[in-house]
Amino acid sequence: MHRSTRNAHLLRPFLAILISLLSISAYAQTAGTITGKIISQDGNPLTQVNIRVAGTRLGTITNESGEYQINNVPAGEHTLIISRIGHQRIRHTLSVAAGQTTQVSDLTMNENAEQLEEVVVEGRNSYKTDIPSNSLRLKTPLLELPQNIQVVSRQLLADQQIFDMLEGVSRNVSGVTKNEHWGNYANINMRGSRVSPFRNGINVTAPWGPLTEDMSMVERIEFVKGPAGFMMANGEPSGFYNVVTKKPTGVTKGEATLTVGSFDTYRATLDLDGKLSQDGRLLYRFNVMGQSKGSFRDFEYNNRYTIAPVLKYKLSDRTSLTAEYTYQFSRMSAIGSAYVFSANGLGSLPQNSTMASANLDPTNIKDHSAFLYLEHQISDNWKLTAQMSYFNYNQIGSSLWADSAKVTGEVYRTVGIWDAINESKFGQVFVNGEVTTGPVAHRILGGLDLGTKRYIADFNTSFPQYDSAFVFNANTPNYYLPARLLPRFDRSLSLLQRAGTNVVTQSYIGLYVQDELRFLNDRVRLTLAGRLTSAKDSQYGTGTNETVFTPRVGASFSINKQTSVYALYDQAFVPQAGVDRNGRAFDPITGNNMEAGLKKDWVDGRWNTTVAVYQITKNNVLTADPTNPNFSTQLGQTQSSGVEFDLRGEIVPGLNLVMNYAYTNAKISKDTREENVGMPVPGFSRHVTNAWLSYRLRQGGLQGLGVSLGYQWELDRFGWFSDVTSKEPTLPNVFRADGSVSWSNSRMSVALNVNNIFDVASYAGAYYAWSKAYYWQYDPPRNFRLSIGYRF
What we know:
Blueprint: H1 2-22, E1 31-39, E2 50-53, E3 59-61, E4 67-74, E5 76-83, E6 90-96, E7 101-103, E8 107-108, H2 113-123, E9 149-153, H3 154-159, E10 177-178, E11 188-190, E12 193-194, E13 196-199, E14 202-203, E15 218-225, E16 239-245, E17 253-261, E18 265-275, E19 282-292, E20 302-314, E21 319-332, E22 340-342, E23 363-377, E24 382-396, E25 398-405, E26 410-417, E27 419-437, E28 440-458, E29 462-464, E30 472-473, H4 495-499, E31 503-519, E32 524-539, E33 542-560, E34 563-574, E35 589-602, E36 607-624, E37 632-652, E38 655-670, E39 685-696, E40 705-717, E41 734-744, E42 748-755, E43 763-768, E44 773-778, E45 783-791
Parallel strand pairs: 1-7, 1-8, 13-16
Antiparallel strand pairs: 1-4, 2-3, 2-5, 5-6, 9-15, 10-11, 11-12, 13-14, 15-16, 17-18, 17-45, 18-19, 19-20, 20-21, 21-23, 22-44, 23-24, 24-27, 25-26, 26-29, 26-30, 27-28, 28-31, 31-32, 32-33, 33-34, 34-35, 35-36, 36-37, 37-38, 38-39, 39-40, 40-41, 41-42, 42-45, 43-44
């Protein structure tokens, strides 16, 4: 009864919107819609162009195709005010008819170098984003979407001097935390479970991967909370993050940056953007990065370089073809070097403790990815997008772990081979369109997704780093292994021959159709959608073959032009290998998300707030068979519920703020063992709040001077790999403060960031029963990064 009452409470906003929608019989249409496209002098689409309807609070910005749409424009004569950094302002007069869409012919913006210096200081701090990227397939502004989607902009990443996904990206979105892991990929948690990593709309999830994206090639990162049938169905229902890489803009420009920092950190980046043909039909973007980076722990390092060229060719005014290639190389200390082990409890060793061996060979990772995009504007209302991609990840190296540890300091370490290849191929075709049936406007999305993945690994051979004469002792460490204990891995056979059953494969095909019905001049929106997914998985010798239909129903209502409320129901599934004691194959885990929220733009859209409440239920979770503990049965269920708040944007001129808070409660709701019901699901923090406040002077003798200050605060933390034995948190609370001082003008920028100002010794880990020891990773102590940038 209690569970039913709670579910009914969460459904009330959704039911209220549906009832209001069904009660509408007629409504006088008194407003219309304006659509159009902004291009450069060379005919290329211009992004991030501000479009405002004079005398109103209506406005938007152009997307990656230079397109814009403004809804709920009162009928009559209006003037559009169009502006962009470094370009001459345009005023365009037009007439809007009630209930009609006014298509504005393409408008060309001319560059204005004299205005560039004046507006760069104002325009660089762009923490708020109004529209999703093309790779999310949605053509609806974020304010009107019935889902909590948060975007971390390139400028915010630069201001915080974030190098890759393993650093502080998670602080910028409510409820997102980073779990400790090996260090070669990002293990991001949200709404009670790991989220799936995407790149440019492609699900690149792998057993151990992908290699963390370097921020030098990243334009933005989009966090989609909860299941998202418009992108995927076979994955955790917590959601995903989508890394959007940089593309050509058609504007000739460049930027070089040099960075030095604590722990022997040296880094250089170069970003070039421009045209390869005089007619502007062939564009390019080229990013390159080199990095040498140590650690506060001895013998730990991660040296990387990245090369990312992109070419875009305009076949016609309606068709373009884009080719993108990225190569990332990482040479790092043995994977797992960041872990320390002790039998005396978590945090019982000094912060700079290490158990790495100084004379082990490095681990080398080569990560290739290639994309080919085709975009074709079929008509003014219909667009076709197709893309193919190929990923190849090659790792040759080793990993460190501990067999056991003693209270006297001895740690019995082992080093194991870890060679791996992860190869993936993907194809996508989707179409966006708009039609009208009577008083109802339809925004249509249809898509087809195909993909194959194969992960092959050899971690079958390990060597003890101890014998009767040598054992590592954390109290009196000797970091150099005797020659007789150095590993001698046999790589004479191919990886496939060495892997044995350590092969994970997946192939899938998905068909998705969505209709967003828009009523009452777009004030009321109802989303009806469904995805049919056929997925075949094979993991370590066992496999599944599932065909699952997942529905999606959402509703959104604009209270006024700046405020909307929404409700959503969506599903996802996770294939499960294995059989029960009767030989029956396990059904997939099904995840159901019920969500409701309120979104609001403030002060002419300068900043935005989002409040969301959700409940995710995962059914068919494996639990111990009460009649035979050697088998599992599908009687388990987990629930994750919570509240999220996000604020981002420019509060007053020059003052930008990102602030968030999330309450998360993830627990076991069904189990064959009654004592497990109510126990927490590992890997989340019950309370998480973060903020980043940045102020930059816009005039006077100190124009361009900026100061930033932020914090990260996690309370009631549960380790992600801990055994569930109590409802009490397993990790201490963490508070960390960071800040920066910077200066910039149209050409130069200098920034000094100080992280962990109060030098807090925070960590994450758990008790590992197999080793009969505690393991954990410390976060870095106080450290700095100093960067100098030049734009040309």
